[in-house]
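#struct-queue
[09:14] JT: dropping the first one here, sequence first, then the structure tokens:
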Amino acid sequence: MPTFKSPTEQSPRNVPPGEYTFTVYEMETLISKGAKTAGSDVYKMKMTVDDHGVKVFDQLIDHESCDWKFGAFLKSCNVQLNEDEHFELIKTRADKLRCRWVNPVGLRGRFRLALVKKDKGEFNEVESYLLGDPLPVETQPEVEEDVPW
């Protein structure tokens, strides 16, 4: 059943292009129908832009041509994996294959968003995942004080 929200209480639909911190709140698994990646697992990631309430969607495809995107996503979330280490995003598969399970729900990282215009309106799209410290510490500018003596 829908719930009424007055326009002042609704979350914004998008944010200006730029760099933001995100949190994954849900993942859905599908099968790719793309010409190059047909039959591969597709992980549809549902994320929120922290401090803005905006929802953003992206997908990761388990195919060798898309390994770079998986790596960038995991590094942006500060997930530590060894080179060529096997992992799974689905717990039952990880248990069955006896490999590391990486739970994407709750992961936080940083990404660069673009604002894309399509027939149905404007929406944010992940342009790239940002590597390095996923949650940078804000610094205050130094202020010179007038010393009366």
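[09:21] JT: and here's the second one, same format:
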Amino acid sequence: MLLAGLLASCGSGSIGEPGCEGTGCAEVEDGGGFLDPGTVYDVGALLDIGPGVNNGGDGLSGKDVALPDPDAPPTDADGDGSSTPDDCNDADPAIHPGATERCDGLDNNCDGTTDEGCPANNGGNNGGTSAVGASCTSNASCGAGGGCLTGWPGGYCSVECGPAGPCPSGASCYGLQTSQGTTPLCLDDCAQRSQCRTGYACVPTEAGGACAPACGTDADCNGGACDATTGLCGAAANNGANNGANNGGTNPPAIGDLSQQQITSAGQSRSYLVYVPTGYDGSAPVPLVLAFHGSGDTASNFYPYSQLGSLAEGRGFIVAVMQGRNNDWAVHTLPASSNPDVTFSLDVVERLSAQFNVDRQRIYAIGYSNGGFFTFLLGMTQANTFAAINIQASGSPLPGQLVPNAARQLPVYILIGTNDGLLGPARDIRDRLQAAGHPVQYEELPGVGHCCYQYGKNNAIWTFLSGYAAP
């Protein structure tokens, strides 16, 4: 969900541009190692990630850590230099004696306690000074691992989430989009404004609600009206002026803003998120990227975490983040003409091509985990539509069928962690592709498991994809 126009305007610039001014801007304290010193965070671009972090379907989350067998010989299966029984989780190299304690609900340093020194929860509700949502003047006010958003009224304690781990109980993970990209941060949960501190509103989100800076006057609302009772701009009360779902997705997505769109495909209502870069003026064709989340995940979670919106803004392409049916993708359904997700993908390509000046020779696909398996199926069966693809933490769902039947030699960039259980299938499909003459860029990431989309590789991904055009 894009909370468009909820809070303050950032001067005359667009969301994510430097030079943010006003109530909705949060400048991070300079120094202390929390986020990027001096970065300006615009709460007007708040994106709901959701209450959980482990939405990728890897089966590992929370405190589900197997206890070691006291009679078993010492092992160091994860290669972190610490052996059992001292290593309390020999399957995770980030957990071992002496490791830095992270605010993730786990005993990272194996000292028998969890999240010691981390921010508590519900600071906005109880006025504490070492809690998510609590007032602060410096990073030190927020406890170990926390940081102070000094540009928000009275300061706002938070902690990074997403790849850094889940939020403390009573807080949820959101993406704050800036000129530096999207940073996942924990915000205080709420159900009504009275549960938030003075100067804050309970902003409606898919997770329920988050305490964030309230609007003060109509000038904070980008032309809308500030509701003094709720502290929200009128656009928020009407569910967002730029949400294409409000009119069935028939209006083109807004330029320079994230838009949720709906489309009827294969007889079903489907949804997707679209970001069109601010530099788009229709005078020249631009590339299009379709992105596919992992199993159990959502488009609204995947978009901010992947930072593909920031990449699209900087590189000048349109990105559509697709929402799977039941948060999943049909990775084994052939022929492609009977696969509803292939039909959905092609329908979105056609709609966006009708709404914008899309370069039909530069349409690409990116997928993670289950979304990566589907991206491979989509690319191989629609090789004349997609110029190149990137798959992460995945391989081919049908290795013996897809590669031999591809209409052309499709360029594929494969990213896989050396600790990922799918390393074998990834290597297998690399070999099959190379044997069939497909251009392949293959990269193994040392020590990385099946954890998350590798947004740190976005520039490399775009360099690879943009180097190819469909016939």
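[09:30] RK: nice, looked through the second one.
[09:31] RK: The first strand starts at residue 25 and ends at 27.
[09:31] JT: good to know. The mean pLDDT is 75.
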